[in-house]
Design brief:
The chain is α+β, with helices and mostly antiparallel strands and 395 residues long. The chain is built from 13 helices and eight strands. α2 packs across α5, α7 packs across α9 and α7 packs across α11.
Length: 395
């Protein structure tokens, strides 16, 4: 109901109107529309009715200001997630939290330029070449929304281009190291001199962790179940600039058991060694839920690229073949599980795959490779049998 009250002004009776207009979304306080200086009660009632009608249609409720990319993204996300499948939404949400917002979230929309967006896309192209187009499309959609809402007057994403991707050779698409190659790799490392690296690669090859998941691990995430079993709880991931975000997708939240007394012993030694090194450097050892397994001299998360350099250096020094990158350690984990006969649904859960197609594609490749090897074995068997038959005739 409108409040209409008379008051005196310069010896004349005038009227003041006040209409309740809802809660201000920015302050959380009640908001009112008011008018005053009206000379007749009849006119006051007419204006009050008009204001009440406008309020009933929501024309007077202030909308929250959207000034940063993150704020516009939040508004766009609410409508976008209703237009795609849940699996697609989960993938885009992971990209948004792990890459898009860390790079552009704090940028004011009016200050966002083509150059800023292009720089971010170039970085994503290096880190996630197969998903950079999704990131580009999402950024462009957010900018278009900002343009429609009048937040910006020119779309800075129009002239952004995707860097040309180097085509992956078909033979390298499913490249991985088998059991013998993995064992040969670890034989090149000295557990005493390279304890930190050995622990890291054990978690990568036998736990199937992504690079960001590995570097975000704290000691609380490592559970020593027994003398021969380690349970690794994956619940976060490291992104650029040392920022730690939730995992890539919901499926990425998982607990991965790793068997082997050797790893249990190494983890214990590394925890003690790390604490000793940090103390020498004058750094405080943090509680287990904060202390990362792999840190710099200043007790900060190590750069994502450093783990790649560790692997490349060992491969180059020891002339290991085939040459793989850090992502292939995860691919090796999945492939060796399938070769060992572990069911596809179990492999999918251990790897944290959100889509069955990802695991099945690897399974299909492994299965085809096994068939070829079986055919070669059979051919060798019959060839040997023919040779033996020839020897019998001569005797």
């Amino acid at each position: 109901m409108a409040s209409i009250k008379p008051y005196q002004s310069k010896g004349m009776t005038k009227y003041r109107i006040q209409v309740y207009a809802g809660i201000d979304p920015e302050t959380g306080k009640k908001r009112y529309r008011s008018r005053q200086g009206i000379t007749t009660e009849r006119e006051a009632r007419m204006i009050a009715n008009k204001l009440e009608f406008e309020v009933s249609r929501g024309e007077d409720i202030k909308k929250p200001k959207m000034t940063t990319f993150s704020q516009v993204s939040d508004a766009y996300w609410e409508s976008y997630k209703l237009t795609v499948r849940k699996t697609t939404a989960d993938v885009v949400l992971g990209l948004m939290n792990n890459y898009i917002l860390p790079s552009l979230g704090n940028c004011r929309m009016e200050s966002l330029t083509t150059g800023i967006i292009q720089k971010a896309i170039n970085e994503w192209s290096e880190e996630i070449p197969t998903a950079v187009h999704r990131c580009r499309n999402y950024v462009q959609s957010v900018c278009k929304m900002a343009l429609r809402e009048g937040i910006i007057h020119k779309d800075p994403s129009v002239y952004v281009v995707l860097p040309k991707q180097q085509k992956v050779k078909k033979d390298d698409e499913f490249l991985f190291w088998n059991r013998e190659q993995v064992n040969k790799f670890f034989a090149c490392l000295d557990p005493d001199k390279d304890l930190e690296k050995v622990v890291a690669f054990k978690l990568l090859f036998f736990g199937g962790l992504r690079r960001g998941e590995l570097l975000a691990l704290t000691w609380k995430d490592i559970q020593l179940v027994s003398k021969e079993q380690t349970l690794v709880n994956v619940n976060k991931t490291l992104v650029s600039h040392g920022k730690i975000n939730p995992p890539k997708t919901k499926a990425s939240y998982r607990s991965v058991p790793i068997m082997g007394a050797e790893l249990v012993e190494m983890l214990g030694k590394w925890k003690q060694s790390q604490a000793h090194k940090l103390a020498i450097l004058g750094q405080k050892v943090l509680p287990d839920d904060e202390q990362l397994l792999f840190v710099t001299r200043s007790n900060k998360a190590i750069p994502l690229a450093l783990a790649d350099k560790w692997l490349a250096a060992v491969i180059k020094k020891n002339n290991l073949t085939p040459v793989i990158n850090l992502h292939r350690t995860r691919h090796s984990f999945v492939s060796n599980l399938l070769l060992a006969g572990v069911p596809v649904p179990t492999v999918m859960k251990l790897a944290g795959h959100s889509r069955a197609e990802t695991t099945l594609a690897i399974y299909s490749h492994i299965n085809q490779k096994s068939k070829v090897e079986a055919a070669q074995t059979l051919a060798s068997y019959f060839k040997q049998s023919s040779k033996d038959s020839g020897k019998d005739k001569t005797t």
